[in-house]
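User: C-alpha cells for this complex, please. No commentary.
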Amino acid sequence: MAKVIITLGNDISTDDIYPGRFMATVLPTETPQFAFFDRTEFNAFLKARQFPAGSVIVGGENFGCGSSREQACSTLKGYDVTVVAKSIARIFLQNSINLGLKVVICPEIEASEGDELEITDDRVINATTDKSFAQVQMPAARKGIMDAGGLIPYTRRLLMARL
Amino acid sequence: MTVVEKILARAAGLPATKAGDVVEPKVDLAMSHENAALVVNQFQEIFQGTGHAPKVWDPSRIAIIFDHRVPAESPKTATNQKKIREFVAANGIRKFHDIRGDTGGICHQILPEYGYVRPGFVVVGTDSHTTSHGALGAFSFGIGATEMASVWSLGFAVNIEVPETIKVVVKGEFPPLVGAKDLILHLIGLLTAQGANYKVLEFHGETIRRLGTSGRIAICNMSVEAGATSGIVPGDEETLRYLREEAGVTDPIACVTPDADAKYVRTVEIDVSTLGSQIACPHMVDNVKPIKDVLGTRVQQIVIGSCTNGRLDDLAIAADILRGKKVAEGTRMLVFPASGRIFAQALERGYVQDFMKAGAVVMNSGCGPCLGVHEGALGDNEVALSTTNRNFKGRMGNPKSEVYLCSPAVAAASAITGVITDPNAN
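Assistant:
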C-alpha cells in the first residue's frame, strides 16, 4: 500500500515542480531540496521526509508540462515517490523513464490526500474508497528502458555492443 | 506519409513509417545550452566502467549555445559554463556560441541564423522550445539531458514513436498589427495546453506560405505550449530564400513535403482575416482571450524579445509604435534581441535608439527575463506583459506575480499607456 501525500490539479508545470531559478543546480543529490519550492508547506513536508518510500503524488491532466529540465524528475526521484497522473506531458514522461522516476498513467484516477493506493502492473486500486482504475500501459520500447534501470545503463549496453 | 513520417523514415533507414511505429532515427543536429553541464555528467556516466574513454559520436553535429544565464549571474553558473567550454575544446565541437556580442544569442535564433538546420533534418535539443526549428522544415523536438547524453554517445535517438500529425490550415490576410503570435496564441487556446500532446502540428495554407521565416519560428516555437512534440512548416520557397540569403547556405537543399494522401489525426482550419490581438492570461498559456477582455489591465513590466519574438521584424513593429513616445511612468520596459546579429541590425536601423529614447532598457541577447532566473524578475503582486512564450506561475521568478503573453505590437502599445492596450485602438 502507498499513501497519497498530495493531490494536485491539471497542468502542473515543470516551473511548479522545479522553479527555473534553481536550474544551475544539476546534481541529483542536490536537486530534491527544491521540489515544489514555491508550495512552501509541501516543500517543507518533503524535506522532513516523514513519509514512507513509494508514497504517491496524484496529478491531473498534463502533469509535467513545460520545460525539458530533467531536474523536475530528479527532484522527485530523490524522495522515492511515485507519480500517478491522468496524463503526463511528453518530455516529462520520457525524462521520468530515462531517470527511473516511477510514473503511472491512470486516466480515471480518483484519490484524496491520505488515501491508500495499491498499484499493480495494470491497475491502481484505491483501498480507501474501494475503487479500481485502469492504467495506460507503457509501450514496449519504453519498457525496455525501464527494465534496464534507466537510459544510462540502456545506452551503455547499446554502446558496448558497437564498440 | 506526413512530413514527419517521411523525415523519420529517411533518418531511420526505412522505406516508410507510420504514426505509432517505434524508430531509432539518426540525429542530424543535437543542441544544448547551459544544461550541457548536466549532459556532460550523464555522458561521462554512460562510459563509466566500459573501459572506453568518453567520446562524442560526431562533434560536427553537436551545437552548444550559451543563452539562459548570460553573462553568468552566479559562481555556480559560471563554473558550469567553464566546464562546458573545456568539454567543447576537448571534443572539437565547433558549433559553439559563447557569450559574445557578435556571434552569440538565443539557441533557437542561432541555429537558423547560422544555417545549422535544414529541411528534412532530425534535430533534438535540451530545451522544450526546440520545436522552433520546424519553421525550416526539420523535425525538431525537445529532450532531457540524459537523452541528449545518449544521443552524444550513439548518434541516434532511441525509442522514438512516430507521432500522429494534426494538420493546421491557415487562410486569410492578417489585419494590421495582427500576426503570427496572435495566430499561435489563438490556436493554443483552441487546442488547449495538452490538445496536441505527443502529436505534431503541420502548418499549411496561403497565410503560412506568405509568412516569413521569423513568423514561422514564432509559431513552431510555441507549438509545444499545446503539448506538441513539434510544429513543422514543410520547406518551400521562403525556406530556401531564408537559408540562402540570410543564413548563407550554399550547398544543395532538399525540401520535404507531405504526400497528397498523408493521414492526419485531425484538421484544424483558421481564417485570420477577422483575428484580433490575442492575450494569454495568467497562469496558463492556453488561457487565451481576445484583447478586449483584458484592456486596461495595469502592467508594471513590459518585455519584448526572446526566441519567440525577438527578431528584427518584431523589433521593427515595436520601434515604429514607440518612436517619439515615452514608456509610461510606473512601467518599465525591457527589450532583448534574439541574437547579437539582430542587435547589430536593430542598431543600424535605429530601433535601439528608438527604444532607449522612449525609456526602455535594451539588454543583451539571452533568455534572461523570459524565465526570470537571471534578470527581469517581478516583485510581489506585479504584472508583466511579455512577448515570450510561457506564463506559468512563477515563470518570471516570483510566484506572487502574473504574466500575460502578447504580440510585439500589443507590448509596445501597452508600454506607452502602462495598461494593456489594443495597438489598433488609434
